[in-house]
Amino acid sequence: KGKVVYITGASRGIGESTVYAYAKAGASGIFITARSISDLKTVAETAKKTSSSVVVEPYAVDVTDDKQVGESVKKCIEKFGRIDVVVANAGYLEKWTKIGDSDPDGWWKSVSVSVRGSFNVIHHTIKYLVETKGYAILLSSAGAQARYLGASGYQSAKHQLNRFAEFIQVEYGSEGVKVFAIHPGGVLTKLAANEPSIVPLLKDKVELASHTMVRLTSGSEDYLSGRYVSCNWDLDELVK
Ligand code: NJP
């Protein structure tokens, strides 16, 4: 209760759901970012209906741009004075193709949004998390441990993100920062829909997918009490 949360990729999907979960869990301030300011404003309106006491501040940021991320953190501090929880959630999944057929820009975008974006966010927020002994939450993926044919950029990036999360723990855990790498399974969002062959499989599994979403949102409340939450399940079943 009463925490200030900074979250990226908050305009839709898992990030949007996480905003509502924090509002419901009693956060006092939520600083929400993504590139689309109009979508963020809609999310802010909806979050305020979830909790009348929460203040939600939308701010347009491209996480791959260090300067923009730095500016956004400055604005968040000006608005709320502190940060208790950072959720580095923004992600991008390239079109699923084998390496030789990949569009290099799409491949590097997966890596950049995940790795560069999360570095930028943690780089600028970590001193505030040290002050509050707060929570650094990185959205990794069940795919980080997998090798599904066609998503080499995304999965390699998530693998690196896991190691990055370990480094945050190594460097700042002793100063009280709690670090989480969340590994969702398949959740039917725009990101997952980028791979047409997966969509029907996810639709068949809507119950399972929404179950993961439920676990993740209840997980967000758990983050506030410091319990580790894993949203792992076996994607093999979905991509066979
Ligand atoms: O994705 P999606 P999810 N700078 O596409 C934002 C991981 N995950 O909710 O900028 C700033 O619905 C974008 O907003 P906008 C996944 O890897 C998912 O599924 O306005 N923001 C939007 O708000 C990711 O890390 C599944 O376009 C940028 C958000 O990011 C996280 O969960 C499975 C941006 C993406 O929303 C959320 O994914 C798994 C940028 N450059 C892990 N680029 C799954 N869905 O099945 C994008 O294991 N955004």
TrEMBL record:
It comes from the Eukaryota. The keyword Oxidoreductase applies. GO terms for molecular function: oxidoreductase activity. Keywords: Oxidoreductase. Belongs to the short-chain dehydrogenases/reductases (SDR) family. This is Short-chain dehydrogenase/reductase SDR.
